[in-house]
Amino acid sequence: MAVADKFKGIIDFLTSGFDGREDGIYGEMMEEADEYPTQGNYALNPSYTQQEEKPQNSKVVNHPNYRGYEVMVCEPRSYEDSISIVKHLKDRKTIVLNLHLLDKEQALRIVDFLCGATHALSGSQQKIGDSVFIFTPINVALSAESQKSKFIRDALWNQPEA
Fold first, then answer.
1. How far, rounded to the nearest angstrom, does the alpha carbon of residue 66 sit from its chain's CA centroid?
2. Contacts of residue 40, Cβ cutoff 8 Å, sequence gap at least 6
3. Nearest 10 degrees: CA dihedral of 43, 47, 52, 58?
4. Rounded to whole angstroms, how far apart are CA atoms 32 and 26?
5. All structural domains of the chain
6. How far is CA 65 from CA 46, 89, 93, 131, in A?
7. Is the separation of the CB atoms in 46 and 36 below 8 Å?
8. What is the CA radius of gyration of the chain?
9. DSSP symbol at 139
């Protein structure tokens, strides 16, 4: 019987924390439950309270590392430099690409690669000069005036006065 008494002592010790639930948080919950009638676990007429919202005087401050829109001028010397240019584009920086240091074949490969990356990132690209291109991320709108629209505008506004 000594073994049975030891087991009973251990079980009593382990379950003693569950006795007397009327104090602590459970007691507070029971006091609140007496405020309105219940049927089983359902509250028949619950009373709700709402806390007043305090006006917050929050001041929005720019992040110290925020640099706004950044334009990078890149002059790659090899095809391997195009990977770092795409990383800048992924960081939402506008890239002005000057290819005057490369031969025609390498320049074409870099432009093709960057056009594909720009398209994949939903950006825009435009040729702006001889061996000079601009690549913009999705957060920068790129608009260009065509030669035809420039000619029509000049023809309408530069008419001789009668």
1. 14
2. none
3. 10
4. 10
5. 71-144 (3.30.110.150)
6. 50, 18, 14, 33
7. yes
8. 37
9. T
Q: Write the DSSP string, 22-33.
A: TSHHHHHHHHHH
pLDDT, tens digit only, all 162 positions of the chain? 677 787 788 777 777 665 555 555 555 555 555 566 667 766 666 666 666 666 666 666 666 666 668 899 999 999 999 999 999 999 999 999 999 999 999 999 999 999 999 999 999 999 988 899 999 998 888 877 667 667 676 766 666 665
β-pair type (94-98, 132-136):
antiparallel
Specify the pTM: 0.51
